[in-house]
Amino acid sequence: MSKKIFTQTAVSSESQARTGVLNTKHGDVQTPIFMPVGTQATVKTMTPEELSSINTQILLSNTYHLYMRPGHELIARAGGLHKFMNWQGPILTDSGGFQVFSLGNLRKITEEGVAFQSHIDGSSHFISPEKAMEIQNHLGSDIMMAFDECIPFPSEHDYVMHSVDRTTRWAKRCLEAHQRPDDQHLFGIIQGGIFHDMRKRSAEGLLDLDFPGYGIGGLSVGEPKENMYDVLDHLIPQMPEEKPRYLMGVGSPDCLIHGVLRGVDMFDCVLPTRIARNGTAMTSIGQVVIKNAKHTEAFEPLDPHCSCYTCKNYTRAYLRHLFKANEILGLRLLTLHNLHFLLDLMNNIRKAIHDDNLVEFSKAFYLDYYGKPLEWD
Prior knowledge:
By secondary structure, the chain is of the alpha/beta class. The protein has 15 helices and 16 strands.
């Protein structure tokens, strides 16, 4: 039996939402949680101290990119990923599957693994389930992900079936190759596209392997959001209550709310940092494009209801100036704000679950942010 790492602490009476505590070697994580993405051992433009100041509980780093540069063996010699990047809290590493499979014509899938060419210099590489475990064991992350095939959207049913079965076989090989089960939790990844029977097939195969937690992969890859919510509605009731559920690659406010309402515990996405670098901020009344001319003489905070460093110290006019002048500080200040916004949203969601008024909170947030009602029965 796998090690118990998750304790449910509160349950919503009006949805499938719940709060919980996820135990890791580098600290406990309060769920539901959003994980900022530090692809190459850094959350772009942010220092670890700044991330701590906005109550970041756990970061995500990318196995594929760290394998390509600077290399997992170098990071191991540096004392592991935590020491290398000077982050003391928990870290989750993905398996690299999504990045490898997104290489398109630069990769070839076989039963043994995936042969691919580097996006950096074109050199040839091969990642198998065993190699993915070796890399992540060297990195020393608190949570590792099994090597899977991330199915593109759309995909034919027959292809999805063969892919799901391969992912299950690979998951078993990952378990057998995992060298540090006592201090690194290995999650399986449920695939299956938008097909309910394939999601059920994947879940049954992986649940038999008894991972301590489970990712939900292959969503937010181009399918309509209604398809994603439909998959979650059918899949999550099949997942064990005593284990954490991680919806991979999802981070817009609407998807966070809909995911939590359906029982998801963990999320990650590059969205808040990416749109920040392009000049877009998430605020209590929706997105603000700070480059727009109307902010030229806007001498008020980016979001008067926000308590982050950016909103307490700078105006929209100043932020617009930074972006128009191509100053790096603008990217940093907007990134900090967006991450604070999502982490604060998740904190408020956890409180609403404990107070058992999540649907009321979600409807009010949705109306303020999107200007339309939340559809939830």
